[in-house]
Target: Sensor histidine kinase
Amino acid sequence: MPETLRSLLHPLHLAGLCTLAAVAMSLRWIAGAHPALAWTLLGAFAIAQLSHDAVRRRSPRAADALLLLMPVLALLLLWINPRVGTAQVLLVIWTAVVASHWSARALLAAIVLSGVGQYLLMLDYGHSAPLTVTLLYTGFQGFAAVTACALRNAENSRDALVRVNADLLATRALLADSARDSERVRVARELHDVAGHTLTALTLNLRALASDSQLGGRAELKVAQQLCGELMGDIRGVVQAMRDGGGLDLTNALHALAAPFPRPRLALEIAPDLRIRDPALAEAVLRMVQEALTNSARHADATTLNVSLVQHEGRLRVSIEDDGHLHGVVREGNGLAGMRERIDALGGHLALARAARGALRIEAELPA
Model:
């Protein structure tokens, strides 16, 4: 589902659209030259509400400017004719939107200021009970704020649980692969030590029999010596293949980590000859990609995250870049700082830069 459509189908947006329709129906009671202005104000309010999420993904400051414009439009509509009493409903919608993005302190200040604006406009109009009406709609605003905050907290908790579950699945995949790799090495070692020891003893005994004057010329003995040598070579080949085939499978772990994110999509490019046997190194790569996925989803509005892993001359090179756009300068928050600390602890190097198209590019090099 497209992001815009998914945003419009959000419960708060659907409720807001229904309320806007009800307010639009009430505009027929505004007489004179005011209806055109009222429709203009209501249309501007609707555009600001519906475009807010899309604007926030590109410019948070512009989105906050829209949030500051919306109560002004609502109060202007109230100023046109306070008698109708529906313009205050727009402030309830606005409060629900603000509660999803502003802090509790800013939200409380916004509700108080809008309430003062309502009261002054109705007092100037000569309303018979301005304080009662103001407190009534302020209560509705408080209810909308509490509902929006509860919904936001529930969504944040759900997203956090999804990320933790993906983290556990990815870590479990690494642990399982590490256990399989350790078991493979153990079996290879046992096969080499036990079977190799026995076959060596068998070779020595066959050689001793071959030196016997009565048995040395027998064809069966030569065949046994030949088969023993071939078996010894086969076992060595199997042991070498088991050791060379080791290494942790990062592909499954990284895809498990990215599975809960609807966007960005993980585009993974891993060199065929890449072998990572150190669980700490694999964990560092996993956390790098995890942090990059989170940053791309929250701040860059990216659709694809490209991850490249290459091993060259005993060094692992990790390149991460999305197709989004980074707003402002590159700043190291807690996530990027933790990434740098983890890589430094392994003797690696991390570089952050802005790519040519404006996305954040992460380059890391670690000893492998």
Observations:
- The chain has three domains: 3-159, 179-244, 248-367.
- The chain is about 70% helix and 10% strand.
- The two ends are 41 Å apart (CA to CA).
- Residues 179-244 form one domain.
